[in-house]
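Example record

Each entry pairs one chain with its bound ligand, adenosine-5'-[phenylalaninyl-phosphate].
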Amino acid sequence: MLQKLNEVKTEFDSLIDSVSAMPDMAQFKADYFGKKGKLNALMGGMRDLSVEDKKSFGAKANEVKQDMLSAIDKRSQVIELEAINSKLEKNRQDISWTEKITDRGQQAAGLHPLTKVTRELEDIFLSMGFDILDGPHIENEYYNFEALNIPESHPARDMQDTFWFKDKKHLLRTHTSNLQIHGMEVKKPPFKFVGSGKVFRCETLDASHEAAFHQLEGMMVGHDIAVPHMIHFLRTLLSEIFKSELKVRLRPGFFPFVEPGFELDYECLLCGGKGCSVCKQVGWVEALGCGMVHPSVLRSGGIDPNEFNGFAFGLGIDRLTMMRYHIDDVRHLHSGNLQFSEQFRAY
Ligand code: FA5
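Structure tokens for the complex follow.
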């Protein structure tokens, strides 16, 4: 019996390393340990042994059994590891292209010229003690028109071609003047703030007109504020931005939310005032609208016009950026063309 046990063990040892897949291992295990397995068959023969021999054979058989089981475990682990490795090998991905990307050289990112100018404008106003506010692009009639002294039937509503939502109550703001109302709702006078962002108009596009462009709104409310205060702030702003005196002219302008109202033009820096497509051959470019805040607008903001007054202005950031960097068409700014934007990285 012992000899047979040794033979079974020797055969087991010589075969186990040739088992190379888990289903085969299950069969191999059953060949020895299954009901009709070789080890079970041997155990069956124990019936004929003396008690003494039964004991010693039983102990030996158990020892061999444990050895075989742990050999099966070990071999199974190897088979599973090999299966994982071969799967990985089959699914190997070539990611050497990532090295090729870095080989092309990494380019430093840069800010868009509009972002640069907006940040400069905000810094200038911060240094003059203004706060910075933000407001929604999607507005209702009240903030964009009504509270700004533009009632429903007012012809001024047609001055800015509006993108309306289907509900006919919401719109894409046509100017940043909505910030005046939002600002007055959260601030107690005296105050001064600016806020900038995108505005939208259903415009015919040309070198100086975009349908989605940027404005910076400013508002200052307090006691005894007069037009010269407003001119002082706007002059300071322009000379800081252009780092030199710029030829400007102020002319009367109509906006229902200011009285008196003005428009400020600067000499076209692209043609030096001679006339070009940006200034429509007149030598001047419309930079901003401004004026003394209309009493009914102050009232919309809960401010008593008998006690407080102030000025407001709305500046076109795109056109200012064009003058600043000598860009001859506003549409370049919105083209998303990297060759265009990259020129400004160094500025
Ligand atoms: C307004 O939008 C008034 N809300 C400005 C204002 C604010 C007046 C506070 C008084 C008090 P206007 O439509 O003129 O005004 O636009 C202001 C500036 O935005 C213009 O001077 C111009 O520089 C710029 N702008 C206007 N339309 C366009 C356009 N289609 N593309 C690029 N810039 C534009």
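The chain has a mean pLDDT of 91.
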